User: What shape does this take?
Amino acid sequence: MKKVNWFVVCGLILLGACFAACSDDDNGGGWDGESAVVDAHDYDIWTYFNFKTGETKTLNVKSQEGGITGIYTGDLGISVMGSSYGGQEDVKLIISTVTADTVLLSLDSLGFSMSGEVDPYSLSAKATIKQNGDKWVLTGVPTDVDVVNGGEITVYHEVTFSGEIGAAAGSAASIKVTFKPGGMPMAITGTYTVKDRDNKVYMLEGDETSFAWDIAFHKYDVKTNGGAAVKLNTTDLALVTASSISGESFATDTDGHQVMVDMSKMMEGFVGYQTTKLNEVLCGWVTATPTGSMPPYTYELNSNVFVVRTADGQYAKVKFTDYSNDKNVKVYAAFDYEFPLK
Assistant: This one.
């Protein structure tokens, strides 16, 4: 998984959502139709909503053995031009998700130096991954890394991770890291021997095709059940009719998105991600803007009307009214809607 961005994590921790309540609520006189408040604050839960019945269902996200991401413990042997220079025991390696086919590898608390004592440092670089049978194959992406030692910055050039990791529990792993500390003409090679690992893949604990749903929420992430969506220019829900959306271009869900589902080892530098489809239009119901300070983000609700086309060709108009419940707990997707659209 990717190296933790602590500003992002702190902002996300403040958010909270997996229960839904539907009611006829005029929302302060602005709407006299159906309304819903869907709890979406838990990282390891998806909440599914059915426009026709107003019912919800939840599925947990569970971790399973077989993924490449996770926390590894092993010994690092060091060599230069084939000559051994010892190494370091019990080095932590964190492999984090970047995209569906890219990971970030980070060797933590290294103490190796060719020129005396140094402060503990970390080396991180990306690698592409591809599953070949029961193995994950890593292909390194050379990266320059700035390391601060006693106030001095050393650039570690061409840091590259490569190798193979077996998917099954207890299977072999062979990882090499190469790098050139600033000024060195030749590369240093590290051979990482894994002794213990907690590597996971994250999947739904249940079958989301076994029940009827139209839209699903996870934090601010949204997907449809084979549907599509469009954001309209209007903010007036009452003005949107079936005839008024003629000619609109609807966006379907797309593959390969990563959503945070496991924060249990965040303090160790690892966050677990699930690969899933998302609807990028509907994910725009809230906009996060970096502040550069604390809190790291401000959140703004999108006031435009969205229209969701369900898998069977019916339409629902939706306007989000809040991202918290009546006790100001986040994240709760509160919205007014009409289904089917008249």
